Amino acid sequence: MKSFIPPTRTLMGPGPSDVHPRILSAMARQTIGHLDPAFIGMMDEVKEMLKYAFITENELTFPISAPGSAGMEACFANLVEPGDKVIVCINGVFGSRMKENVTRIGGQAIIIEDDWGMPVNPEKLEQCLIDNPDAKIVAFVHAETSTGALSDAKLLCELANKHGCLTIVDAVTSLAGSELRVDDWGIDAIYSGSQKCLSAMPGLSPVSFGDKAIHKLSNRKTAVTSWFLDLNLVMGYWGKGSKRAYHHTAPVNTLYGLHESLVMLTEEGLENSWSRHQKNHQLLRDGLQTLGISYLVDESSRLPQLNSVIIPEGLSDEEVRNSLLANYNIDIGAGLGILGGKIWRIGLMGYTSRKENIERLLSAMKETL
Amino acid sequence: MKSFIPPTRTLMGPGPSDVHPRILSAMARQTIGHLDPAFIGMMDEVKEMLKYAFITENELTFPISAPGSAGMEACFANLVEPGDKVIVCINGVFGSRMKENVTRIGGQAIIIEDDWGMPVNPEKLEQCLIDNPDAKIVAFVHAETSTGALSDAKLLCELANKHGCLTIVDAVTSLAGSELRVDDWGIDAIYSGSQKCLSAMPGLSPVSFGDKAIHKLSNRKTAVTSWFLDLNLVMGYWGKGSKRAYHHTAPVNTLYGLHESLVMLTEEGLENSWSRHQKNHQLLRDGLQTLGISYLVDESSRLPQLNSVIIPEGLSDEEVRNSLLANYNIDIGAGLGILGGKIWRIGLMGYTSRKENIERLLSAMKETL
User: Fold this and answer.
1) A55 close contact with B: CB closer than 8 A
2) For residue B342, what are the domain limits?
3) What is the number of structural domains in chain B?
4) Could you give the ipTM of this predicted complex?
5) Do A159 and A308 reside in the same domain of the chain?
6) Structural contact between residues A89 and A138, judged by C-beta atoms closer than 8 angstroms
7) pLDDT (tens digit, 9 = 90+) per residue, B337-355?
8) What's residue A241's pLDDT?
9) B1: in domain
10) What is the mean pLDDT of chain B?
């Protein structure tokens, strides 16, 4: 066997996004112990910078040592007890996955469905909250990576809070790419991913939990089924003070990468990052328009960082994607689930969201189509 | 906030171990997509090399996308159903963690205990198997990282198999450091860590499941509680063929690192790696003897890669460790649980297991004590 040298790609799919050379360098720094005082200092900085990215004062803000799906599971496993009624809003793959999480734990999932490509409908949620006064949690996806639709997280949380429900929000694709305000919007538990608009490598899931979520967690009648994701234990390691209790071995180098990506976010400024994603999205949109390619999602709820476009009649999904990869080293995403073969997902996330990438893609598509 | 530049340490604790520069370089290679054909080719090589390291033909051999504790949880979450009787052998921290896994899932844990520092007693296991003919699984730790004791995995598995039980084996610290033969010894499910004798960075847990384990998994009456760790789903991504179904986003760069560490293992040869760990252990042992430092574990069951030594009377645990770290940049491990303050754990794992490190440590200890 030989060392693996990856090809040089431009990652324009649904994530991972292109990783900045500064972040790649950080990954190669010498591994140190996960209880080393220097490492604990770095962990504290990661927590501080994640609070900045989420716009929250939540003390319980840190990265789970596993990808976004584990962050999702951390939220449900800690906050849902068997028998709890959870309203799950489904408008794509990741809403369905939330439902799976609820039912496997023994919770009762009440489903609101919207067409794939549409945002979550607040009126349906309100009606559902009225019909289910005993519901304890509302869960929805802020930015549906499978469809490219952005839901009105602020309004949905307002409704949930009004009816006494906690909120669990999937911000895997939105964090650092779209406006997101955890404290202002009343989000009780949120999870994201390192490999989208933060442009770090995959493998970490930043999460944040507010006081009401911690109250629910502290008053559980049953143990959290997952030992690995039990926040009561994880916080012994990610908590306050210089003494940290060993729980599991943190992915040291991946955390170096996340730290560097967050340093870069503070340098750029969070709002500047949001507007860069928006500006570059418009560039891409205008270019695709001249190629006759249209969007799945209406402009009013379109994600700037995840452009889901309808595959023009007569074109082979796979042939085009394979050609972009083989001839131009550009990786765009296929449709997922019921949208497989119907859409492409063009990511402009994090370091990928640059003018030169858009120009390269448009020119490659023009030649390919 | 500024970039984080870690201090230069020599990692001589219970893991992570020092990472070879070749592996650090691999981590910094450009991130590509987790469904990229080039990446899938690399995944296949990782699987092949893990089969070599575990000495198994098990098709279901791959790394879980999270640290060793999640690998442990993957074994229990998939193989234990509510009500299942599981015999758990406890002779340190990680056996206790296994018990936690069993009971949180709703299994019934039957405990055999041995003193910390002793190997698992096969006679106790045999008696327990006779007393519990309805037990379905036997779980034990091959190399107890908390005590430095090696148990006779071959004999324990033989007994379990004779009584019709499946075996779950913790090989976090043993893989590539001590003799371990998954197929020959009749191990049904096993998990390890990337950051010990493989010297890759923390964050991955190599696992392997044999036919009998897969049979139990396929015939479950209840869904696996964890969506993230459900092998029925994970295998859609890590399975055979060139088509892989998206499950979660794999930690791409960390897998580059594991790949490189496994290439280095094939270059050195598995048995050579075992004997290097043994030879260097003897060097350290002889040196510690001249300093008057003795071992917790009897020579017959002493782990070469994890040397747990008794803190000499009158010395302060923390002062010595802090001094080694501050003055020599050498990181050794504290005792865990009931052994806290009583032992030091000196790791000679993977790339750390080199003569020059042993000499540096011995000379630093001589000056410090």
Assistant:
1) no
2) 10-15+270-368
3) 2
4) 0.97
5) no
6) yes
7) 999 999 999 999 999 999 9
8) 75
9) no
10) 97
B31/A201 touch (CB, cutoff 8 Å), yes or no: yes
B143 inside domain: yes
pLDDT at B340: 96
B83 to chain A nearest CA, in Å?
Answer: 14
Q: Of the candidates A210, A239, A266, which is a domain's last residue?
A: A266
Same domain, A103 and A208: yes
Are B227 and B355 within one domain? no
Q: Does B39 sit within 8 Å of A32, measured CB to CB?
A: no
pLDDT digits (tens, 9 = 90+) for B277-312: 999 999 999 999 999 999 999 999 999 999 999 999
pLDDT, averaged in runs of 10, over chain A (369 residues):
97 97 98 95 97 97 97 98 98 97 97 98 98 98 98 98 98 98 98 97 97 96 96 90 86 98 98 98 98 97 98 96 97 96 98 98 96
pTM (two decimals): 0.98
Contact A34 B16 (CB under 8 A): yes
> Looking at the structure, do residues A82 and A231 belong to the same domain, yes or no?
yes
